[in-house]
Amino acid sequence: MTEEATLYDYWLALYQRKRAILMVTLLSAVFALVISLILPPVYEARSVFYVPVTASTPLYTVGGSSTQVDKAPLMPVPEEKSAGGHLGILKGERIATAVLKQFPHLTLRYLSNNADFVMNNYFMTEVYVRNEDPVEAAAIANYYPIAYREFHKQTISQRAEGNVQALERQIALTEQLLNENLNAQQRQRDRNLSASVTTGTLQMEITRLTDLLSSLRENLIESTLKAENPSVEVVLSENAIVPENPTFPRPILNTVVALVFGFVAGCYYALLLNYLSGIRQLKINRRMDITPLVEQARTETEST
Is 10 left (phi over 0), alpha (psi -120 to 50) or beta? Predict the structure, then answer.
């Protein structure tokens, strides 16, 4: 049976192979430094924006004239579910397509690998973009809030256009019904039936249709304005600036990390060599222990 190795044995094994450990450590550091100097630097830019809470604006009437008070401060929506929706839209294909139209030399794979979106603790969306060109990295990061706003404007415009078409059909139908009731009322007047129950019912229906038509036309005007000029508020909290220092590679940091990992790898390498050397020595010892017995058996065989 072999004795269990002690801590002293491990330290002795490392000390005996200190040159191998030093060589592995230095080679790792040199390799990391060379790679860091060869690889092109990558810069990271960050922009921060949020979608404010939609609040109605109160109106006050003073002396027969209505004056609109100032809006409340634009604050982000304090909900994690809404924040998750923003991130999903930013990672979607439509936003990526809009960015690619603005930067046609980029690819969809590049955006998926080099653009990250994070919701911070203040419910604001942080956009991180990495690029070898620091100016372009900042430009892409600043364009994402614009693409996000344009996405919502297109969505609102499309929905408003659908409402306009539906309102136009409803208005046409209401006008037709109103004309029919007006014609019926005129026919009853021609017959001198102004005091009849039917005339009163027609007048009520005409009043209802007139009010409905007025309301539909107001909704049509509002929907038309939304379709032509959709309004979406996106507050850019922090504009991306051109980064001065690269995010990767960092030669000094990479070299220090390589020194640490190289030293650890060198220690494991030294222990592995010591283990293999111990196995080899064990085989030699066993062979030396068996050799006298073999010689004795051979001698006894020859004597018989």
Answer: alpha
